Amino acid sequence: MPLSIGAAVAVRTFGNKRGVVIAVSRDGRYQVRIEAATMWCSEEDLTVASKPRKKKQGGNRSLRHRDTENDSGPVAPPGHIDLHGLVVEEALARVVDEIDRSLLRGADRVDVAHGKGSGRIRDALHRHLASMTVVVAFRLDPKNSGVTWIYFR
Fold first, then answer.
1. Is 14 among the domain residues?
2. What is the pLDDT of residue 69?
3. Do residues 102 and 135 lie in contact, with contact meaning Cβ atoms separated by under 8 Å?
4. pLDDT per position as a tens digit, 95-134
5. Which pLDDT does position 66 carry in this prediction?
6. How confident is residue 62, by pLDDT bands cut at 50, 70 and 90?
7. Main-chain dihedrals φ then ψ at residue 123, nearest 5 degrees
8. Is residue 84 assigned to a domain?
9. In this structure, are 83 and 148 located in the same domain?
10. Are residues 96 and 147 in the same domain?
11. What radius of gyration, in Å, describes the C-alpha atoms of the chain?
């Protein structure tokens, strides 16, 4: 099923999130925009998105009548990465890779163990996370200030 630019798709490996094809590579891979994030996918990762059902106005809906079309199912366990012993540049690169892997698995967060030490990696990590559109929030673990929790949109 060759897809064209502008096609509405659902990304299976991303919790069936809906997106739009924004580019097609020569080797058959598709760049998909999901909200503010973009990612490259193979054709096997994608399905043509069906049109969402219109919701009824007013009234509470029982579980029996729940709209399961947009239910993405259970969330994958959070990703985890340990940055101890790395320099700042390498640590940031590994965090970005882990965020990509976790998003593809359908996880809603990543736990980053950066340690308590001098704070160079933690500070650089927090600055970098603040600039990433896919990150909705991040905070230090309240029980261990050497770990940052990163939450996704």
1. yes
2. 43
3. no
4. 998 998 888 888 889 999 999 989 999 999 999 999 988 8
5. 39
6. very low
7. -65, -45
8. yes
9. yes
10. yes
11. 19
Query: What are the contacts of 62-69 at 24+ separation with CB within 8 A?
Result: none
Domain of residue 41 covers 8-48
What's the total number of domains in the chain?
A: 2
**124, part of any domain:** yes
Helix locations, the chain, DSSP H:
88-105, 120-130
When pLDDT is averaged across residues 130-143 and rounded to a whole number, the result is 90
Same domain, 39 and 87: no
Q: Based on the domain organization, do 105 and 148 belong to the same domain? A: yes
Same domain? For 37 and 84 the reply is no
pLDDT tens figures, 2-60: 788 888 888 887 778 888 888 888 888 888 888 767 888 888 888 887 765 555 554 44
How far lies 101's CA from each of 3, 68, 117, 144, in Å? 24, 26, 27, 24
63 falls within a domain: no
Tokens linked to 135: 């990150």
